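Example record

The entry below shows one chain as it appears in the dataset: sequence first, then structure tokens.
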Amino acid sequence: MNNQDALVSVIIPTYNRPDFLRVAIQSALQQSYKNIEIVVSDNCSPENPKPLIDSFCDPRIRFWRNETNLGMFGNAMQAVSLARGKYLSFLHDDDEWDERFLESLIPALEQYPEVTIAFCDQFITDESGNINSQITRKTTKIYRRDRLQSGLYQPFTEIGLIYRAVPSVAGAVIRRESVDWANIPPEVDRMYDLYLTYLCCKDGQAAYYLADRLAYHREHPNADTFLSGRRNGLSKISKAKVEIFCYQRFIQDSNLRPLRFHFKKQLLHAQTTLGIGLLLTNRPSEARIHLFQSLRGRFFSLRTLAALLLSLLCSLVLMERSHEDDSDHFLSLNRVESIRISQSIRDTFSNNAS
């Protein structure tokens, strides 16, 4: 591409990953598309990465450090607020780009004004940056990008919100003016990637897909997806509440009426996840409320039924122990039973993704 008039803001939110951050910044600086600014927003890391930023000696890098940790979403939006480009592209501090990434995606945005987002496929790498071919192919298939050909998709609500083929913050470039960035509700939190896709497609806009892998997504023990933990009750509760908020928004949008059945199903699935999270934190009565909501919504699954039975078992045990005369004995048994039941719940749901 010879015309590089359009400024692209590369958004890099970061927290406590200096080695990965260095690689991410290098991959942005090595882009064949040169008209960029790189906005690095540090989320109050224990060690200030400013010396690392300064070591690049590149005026295209702009650095901001939050005085307090704003959370993943808050930090990303802080970086966006500092951006000045016509287009925005998120680059996680532990990911990388092929040098042709921007050069390959910007032309479609420049050529077609109806395109709000241009995206590509991605490689999945390990902690050292080595490509895992098997997981890469599996990921492409999961998100059905193997069924897409390069070109325009309008509307793209189905591929964006049902199949989630659009990696809005992990392999895409977004037309800045197409999103009201200042008014994205904070409740979307860790699902801001899907919510951005929603904002880009909800009014029938177009997306451009390039059937090439130009982004590298790193999977490692310190990645946010790993840190959330499948058995962590509080993480499940937080995740489920975010999902419930987003899917309720989608259901209420009249433009997405044809997709409501899918969103309702996902909403009920999130209710079950919330119930399981409450069980893992020994709150069976609260858990039952959400599990019954799943069942009343005709969302019958072994996962929901098993969680409901465990919530009843947990409550019965606690009720039985409450009648013990010896309060010290009761407290001791209650602790033992809580540990036993919590372990049973964890074992039951250890193979469930969410």
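Notes for this example: Strands lie at 8-14, 36-42, 61-65, 87-90, 96-97, 115-125, 151-153, 172-175, 206-218. Residues 46 and 164 are 34 Å apart (CA to CA).
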